[in-house]
């Protein structure tokens, strides 16, 4: 089977769009971030979109190539590592991204603003993931 490039490209475009916004927001100081609900909302939403784009891409590749069925979002990245598509360190980072996405979506009452702010320093993981995806295509 061949991975549907259009599906992947649309998600890569959305990922890049969110990463551009996050890069701009990463210039904000922690103090200013903590004072501004508007900035907090923008950061959280774009982290959520970026994470979901990566999950969707991974899920599509896993299903399309008929790899084993993942037990959850984080397991998608384990499978990509098992199949030789991601290095272990990046798979681990992306698994954390999937867990963080679940916190943003489901445990929104318990979101630690400092942890969210610190996530801005990890957007290179998303870019590295995108580079591997481009290689798969």
Structure classification: mainly alpha
Q: Radius of gyration, rounded?
A: 15 Å
Fourth-level CATH superfamily? bsu32300-like
Please report which band the strand proportion falls in: under 5%, 5-15%, 15-25%, 25-35%, 35-45% or over 45%.
under 5%
**Number of helices in the DSSP assignment:** 7
Mean of pLDDT: 94
Write up what this structure looks like:
With 137 residues, the protein is mostly helical. It has a single domain, classed as bsu32300-like (Four Helix Bundle (Hemerythrin (Met), subunit A), Up-down Bundle), CATH 1.20.120.580. It has 7 helices and no strands. The longest helix has 28 residues, at 37-64. It is globular, with a radius of gyration of 15 Å. 26% of the residues are buried.
């Amino acid at each position: 089977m061949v991975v549907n490039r259009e599906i992947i490209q649309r998600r890569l475009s959305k990922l890049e769009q969110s990463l551009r916004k996050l890069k701009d927001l990463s210039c904000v100081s922690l103090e200013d971030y903590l004072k501004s609900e508007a900035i907090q909302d923008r950061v959280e939403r774009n982290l959520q979109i970026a994470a979901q784009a990566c999950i969707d891409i991974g899920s599509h590749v896993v299903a399309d190539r008929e790899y084993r069925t993942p037990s959850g979002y984080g397991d998608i990245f384990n499978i990509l590592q098992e199949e030789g598509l991601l290095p272990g360190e990046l798979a681990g980072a992306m698994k954390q991204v999937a867990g963080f996405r679940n916190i943003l979506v489901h445990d929104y009452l318990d979101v630690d603003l400092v942890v969210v702010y610190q996530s801005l320093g990890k957007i290179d993981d998303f870019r590295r993931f995108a580079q591997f995806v481009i290689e798969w295509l």
